[in-house]
């Protein structure tokens, strides 16, 4: 049984910070690439950030310099630190485990999502 459980979402003012957590079970966590997606109403699901099993990271252009993805293999947890938040960051954020090869992340397992709302 694979389970990914997100936490840490909420309401924050523009310019503020928020840290999302995703606790994983049922997988060999250290061998998986992990990613964060977001889904906003009327918009296509977007890969925000990904981290490989070796710790290399990749970010969407819209969040570079503001968001940081990290992982703690001992705790089977991946994090998304979000700074300098903007109203356009408002979305449901979903944790994912998958693979990364040929310069691209491929999702496999999904969490339920956590709502992030950034007010003006």
Describe the structure.
This protein is mostly beta strands. Helix content is 0%, strand content 57%. The protein contains no helices and eleven strands. Strands 2, 4, 5, 6, 9, 10 and 11 form a seven-stranded mixed β-sheet that branches. Strands 1-3-8-7 form a four-stranded antiparallel β-sheet, with no helix packed on it.
User: How large is the share of residues in beta strands?
Assistant: over 45%
- Rounded mean pLDDT is 96
| Count of alpha and pi helical runs | 0
* Oligomeric form: single chain
Q: What is the first-to-last residue Cα distance?
A: 40 Å
Secondary-structure content class? mainly beta
Low-confidence stretches: none
Gross geometry: globular
- Characterize the largest beta sheet: strand count, sense, and whether it forms a barrel: 7 strands, mixed
Count all strands and give the number.
11
| Secondary-structure element order, N to C | EEEEEEEEEEE
Q: What's the helical proportion of residues? A: under 10%
Radius of gyration: 13 Å
């Amino acid at each position: 049984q694979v389970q990914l459980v997100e936490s840490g979402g909420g309401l924050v003012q523009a310019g503020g910070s928020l840290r999302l957590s995703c606790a994983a079970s049922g997988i060999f966590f250290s061998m998986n690439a992990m990613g964060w997606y977001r889904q906003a109403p009327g918009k296509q699901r977007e890969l925000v950030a990904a981290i490989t099993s070796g710790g290399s990271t990749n970010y969407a252009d819209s969040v570079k310099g503001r968001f940081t993805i990290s992982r703690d293999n001992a705790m089977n947890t991946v994090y998304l630190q979000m700074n300098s938040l903007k109203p356009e960051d408002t979305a449901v954020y979903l944790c994912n485990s998958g693979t990364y090869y040929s310069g691209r992340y491929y999702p496999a397992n999904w969490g339920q999502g956590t709502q992030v709302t950034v007010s003006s």
